Amino acid sequence: DMSTLQTLGVARIVCHDPGFPQRGREMSVRLPSTGRDMKFNCWLQPGTAPLVYIAPGLGAHRLSLTPLSLAECLYLRGFSVVTTTSIFHPEFMERASTSALPAYPPADCHDLLVALTEIDRALEHKRPGKYGKRALVGCSMGAFQTLYLAAHEKKEGAGLLRFDRYVAIDTPVQLLHGVTCLDRFFNAPQAWPSGERQARVNNAIHKAEKMGTLSSTSVSDLPFERAESQFLIGLTFRMTLRDAIYSSQTRQNMGVVRTPLSRWRREPCYREILGFSYLDYFRRFAVPYYRQRGIGIPDFVREGNLMSCESSLRAQPKVRVLINRNDFLLTSQDVSWLESTFGPSRLKEFPDGGHLGNLGSERVQKALVESLRGLQ
Question: Does the predicted model carry a pTM greater than 0.85?
């Protein structure tokens, strides 16, 4: 399955300079929305330079290799860079989120923008006049949020950060389609005979652990069959969901998880939580929580689909989009919609790469830098 096989290439993303992460600074800001401190990492040019904020994929930390790779690429080309933590990561949920759990794009994106605004104010206060134009670069779920903020830029309150460029890398278009894919991938081993299923799952995980030691540089040579590559992707995102559910329920227990939510002995509740799919999260956690706030399923469906923002995005000249045509998060309808909405001047398409699997490649990083042309 070339799409998911190429997606596994994201596990090979590294910083070209192993010392790059340590050369940045870790800082924090107090957020007025929550009254808590939120950390971020930054790599700042000694002179005046454009400032790029990176919004990572679902559940990624600010020091995950994906945002670090993007940060290194941009810093070496003269940009000052800030990495942030995903709104679906416990750090953001517990520090910056005004909701008990992430799920509703208007609330999540507003919380992200508030955090970015406070970071920007702190950096400007420490080094006034050292920053030029601002850009927001998002990948995967961070790309969806980037486009959502671009579409609703004029609706956000005065005093919140505005960007001179929005760059979305491998954005999903319909969140419901995306989570349905992830649930299906996690269940891919069900196609194997029950008597050998666990052994084959174990084998797939062991092979994944050895990916970094394989001599082959071609992702297409990785030794994974369809169900294996799909399962490994599904498992990775299921672990992200596990952490998000655990974090939300330790702060506001809705009674859905029956096992005691112990901070010292997590394995029993983790085992139960891993049984929840993304659709379960939506139906059993998100919908009941937001229904009490007057938000219903039609609101989720509308706000979780970028097509509902088509007119705003079509008229937004500051947007640039990079996609892979064989990204499993995109339907053929999604690709056609992106092409018609942004056109060749704002959309860069690659024929393959899966979902973020080619992010560390020279061609994608070159396209990223090109998408920021005019800011320096």
Answer: yes
